[in-house]
Amino acid sequence: MIGVLWSFLDTFESNFRPLVVVELAKGTKKETIEWFTKRIVDKKANGGAQLLVKPLVTEKGEENIYLVGASHLRLLLGAETVGLVKECNDNSMRTFTYSSRKTFRDFADDNHNFLTMAECQYIIKHELENLRAKDEKMIPGYPQAKLYPGKSIVRRLLTSGILVQIFPLHDREELKKLRHSWYGRVKVGYQPLDEIRCYFGETIALYFGFLEYFTFALVPMAVIGIPYYVFAWEDYDKYVMFATFNLLWSTVILEVWKRICAIVTYRWGTLLMKRQFEEPRPGFHGVLGINPVTGREEPVYSSIKRQIRIYLVSLPFVCLCLYFSLYVMMIYFDLEQWALDYHEENESNFSSLMLFVPSIIYAVVIEIMNRIYRYAAEFLTSWGKKVVYSSSLNTNNKYFYLQFNFLNCFASLFYIAFVLFDMKLLRQSLATLLITSQILNQFAESLLPYWLQKRHKKRMKKRMSSLKTDTDLTLVEQINLEKEMGTYFGTFDDYLELFLQFGYVSLFSCVYPLAAVFAVLNNITEIYSDALKMCRVYKRPFAEPTANIGVWQLAFETMSVISVVTNCILIGMSPQVNALFPDSKMDLILTVALVEHLLLAIKFIMAFVIPDKPRDIQIKLAKLEFESLEALKQQVRATDM
Amino acid sequence: MIGVLWSFLDTFESNFRPLVVVELAKGTKKETIEWFTKRIVDKKANGGAQLLVKPLVTEKGEENIYLVGASHLRLLLGAETVGLVKECNDNSMRTFTYSSRKTFRDFADDNHNFLTMAECQYIIKHELENLRAKDEKMIPGYPQAKLYPGKSIVRRLLTSGILVQIFPLHDREELKKLRHSWYGRVKVGYQPLDEIRCYFGETIALYFGFLEYFTFALVPMAVIGIPYYVFAWEDYDKYVMFATFNLLWSTVILEVWKRICAIVTYRWGTLLMKRQFEEPRPGFHGVLGINPVTGREEPVYSSIKRQIRIYLVSLPFVCLCLYFSLYVMMIYFDLEQWALDYHEENESNFSSLMLFVPSIIYAVVIEIMNRIYRYAAEFLTSWGKKVVYSSSLNTNNKYFYLQFNFLNCFASLFYIAFVLFDMKLLRQSLATLLITSQILNQFAESLLPYWLQKRHKKRMKKRMSSLKTDTDLTLVEQINLEKEMGTYFGTFDDYLELFLQFGYVSLFSCVYPLAAVFAVLNNITEIYSDALKMCRVYKRPFAEPTANIGVWQLAFETMSVISVVTNCILIGMSPQVNALFPDSKMDLILTVALVEHLLLAIKFIMAFVIPDKPRDIQIKLAKLEFESLEALKQQVRATDM
């Protein structure tokens, strides 16, 4: 039945709306372009993507940029293919199918806003990526670019350098509205998450949702932390109280986030969307096989070979990096000692300022090392591949990178706390590291690229204005601007920043209660600078449906468990607590161990008791599952009778 | 369509096979019997159960026992109602529906063994329990037994004492075969789990599967433990090794059990069976409401009221029991002291034997207290209700009972270990408690009831033999025998026994490595005595589909975490380890704490890394989910076009 619809579908439509830009290398052979565009336009039955393509004629008459769009009907059929979940008229969320389109809220045959632009672009990306070689042995015109049945054409074009990039187009009108409601005016209130989701997709909206939630969640810690600084409280019982509150609070906020996440992604439909049934990303190598779940023919990936390669290549590299990072740490301690000696010899304002210099230098070096490690890891993974529209860090390397960052940032603090036992240095070092890294990050991630981007735009505009004759020029101008913008490589780095910040706040919270205050201040500006980055600095990223923050939930929870241990040890080491047990160090340690075990037990019980999904979402999910199974029964019945 | 089938279904069938026995109180009014049997026989459309009923005519002409059966077609339709999952011809597991019956393996219209007898009885139980009042205000003939729309009739009959019991009938032939292959011959090998499942249902088969698995899993511990006893090893490093092995091993076995459980229950179909979509058990009170998941009208239960009642009634009771149990423990320590004094004063063989007497007495008292607590808790829950065919301990009370048992059994051991620091007494007390409780349990659970049952049977047989004239006599005889047999109240007590045994083995494993040996020996006889109990002592229980061992998985895992802590402390306290740190107790404690944290971390990582379900089961489950969602799409499409 769907088959009939596909053949009805015409590739011509009068009101062509460009959605995605395909940039080919300059001087790409004619036959290649013809073959590629034909495959994009070709009917599904012939193995094409059945999309619309239009060349962008620039002032120089060059034809290396193509605009891809699709008819409304094509997009609706694509929405069914990717399994979008939409709200029905009866308020339930259901997987969209073309034939049941009338049951969906806000659906009308002439309502072109039923699918958001981000969704349309996601569909087109999915279709382009799934354009697979049939019996071609190579890309026409490029005998060295081999193809085999089932190989993603776009992927091969990218790796052989013929295709420079694919990116979705900004919608100037929408973007202006979004910018205004997001950060355009000074206001107290939440971010427009639903609008962000419509424009940038669920992954990015969820990141901003988490950033906002996390900032609010830190406020109580910050409020409780301020008097410790103002009144210079040093009583042990107050520190114990603060640490205990922090530890239990962090458990609560992480559990509550799961619930909020479920509510939000249920509304967005991604909670019900099944990722595992999707066809593998075109990045996968391998020959065609049968997917055991869906029964569809698709490329199968051998994961053992990949695992071995990762361990053989990555492990020695990681060890090397770790060694280097520890070496740098030792240099930092030497510097610190030198600064201290200097301060003792010639005590002055300058020398006491100098005390902070080693920490600041170390913080800068850490940031630089993190970035170098990142690029090196990416180079190792991609190794001869050309990657353009998504970060090449795969999951395993992300774990390595995460651990490396963790050690890089916290090794010195652990060393100071548990080897040197120097609480004053720990506090000073913690503060300097936290503040320096925050300033550096905000500068390197948003402000610097923004400034570069602005300068570039000005130059472009100057060049363009003299040629404003073609009616299409604004589009050409826009595309020329956007294609030079940087690429946003996903939310990994942004989450990592939050993760490290959470470490600074919670691992040593009883030593430096003010950390939460700095974290809150940073995050408020972070929301704005990240928003600026998304709207102004980078190319528009493709939307990526997601139902949760993935591995980060586990990472934050692990950090929260580790911080129970560190805080208990720190409190046990504090002189105030030691003074309570003048006779026996043993009693002290036993008490600390007992308290730690109690706290851990409470944490686990709390995590167990608080349900991950609110009751009404649980019921809705169970209802859908029940209906699915009933439908399966009915279907078997119908086919059999 | 199903509706049409229901009306075709005739309630008369020539070859009536009795499946379930309904015993009414003697002297039940005629009109009540007529009404009840009519409701059982009545068509589904009239609110009946559409089953077959036949009175059992005994020698005295009394008519208080009824046999319930069902036609083959009725059972198949019932299998669809309860959602049985069966294997298809293509080896996949699917929810059975009558219309798709031909696609299922071994299905034939004349094959009456497609459903096992246990499944048939489960279906009949389900149908009887779901026989609900329509507009009756009371049970006819008993104005005090009130009814309201939706109230389970069987439940009201039970609580008002009109219905004495409902139980499934044994199948002598099958039982004989099962007994033979289960414990009838001496053999080395596994239990016939699939046959047990066919006869007794999944819950009981899974218990025996777990018992067997657990016994095998204990063998390595036992093997490693024996030389400690034989060579009287007291080196600390050997104990550390043994404890470390134990702790990691217990994590592995619990994780592997989940995988085995998934494999087994997938084959049985219960892994796919959805319990949460079932209608609530007739035990629930309350008025009719709409189930938010299935959209069906069914009794809704207010859980807040129940919670409050539980806490108001149960908590003080539990506290009282705990106080009493601690009081008994103190008396035990006095006795122990007295025995020790006696032994020191007059040293002889008799006095050294006397040393064990307090522990043995205490073990007996613990068992008695556990049972008293159990009956008291059941009395508190049921309070004026008459419960016959299932244990009345609800989930919350089960938790209380579990905790009470745990404290009752282990409080004295914890006290000896961590307050008295007396390792010798701990070992002696542990050994006595473990062995005494095992002997007592085997005796009280299986052998004593078996002996009583045998005596009763002999007496019955003697009485019967003189009257052997009626052709139906063997059935009458069988029913008269079975209705007097004890009722098996579910696997809770059996699992509890294993759980406490696991505690004895793992909590103090480094003190008494021989515990695992006793556990293995006990479990081997336990399998036989439990099998005897199921086949010979108790009434046949109704089958209960289940996909896992439920809360016991969590209970065993928690025990395994607690034992990491206890073992680390015990090792830290041993004189051998103390001798390694002659200068500083602090270093000792810190080392112990470090090792403990490492072990806990390894445990959690292992539990995280080992997948709960084998990959092929995961794929099969994902495939079913995928097909369900596809079917839902198709269905919406079909209804809409």
TrEMBL record, chains A, B:
Its membrane topology: Multi-pass membrane protein
Keyword annotations from UniProtKB, A to Z: Membrane, Transmembrane, Transmembrane helix
GO cellular component: plasma membrane
Keyword Transmembrane helix applies: yes
Gene Ontology terms, MF aspect: chloride channel activity
Superkingdom as given in the UniProt entry: Eukaryota
Xref: InterPro entries: Anoctamin (IPR007632), Anoctamin_TM (IPR049452)
Limits of the Anoctamin transmembrane domain: 196-623
Cell location: Membrane
Broad class of the protein's primary localization: membrane
Record has Hydrolase as a keyword: no
Transmembrane segments: 213-233, 310-333, 353-373, 399-421, 498-521, 588-610
Family under the similarity heading: Belongs to the anoctamin family.
Protein name: Anoctamin
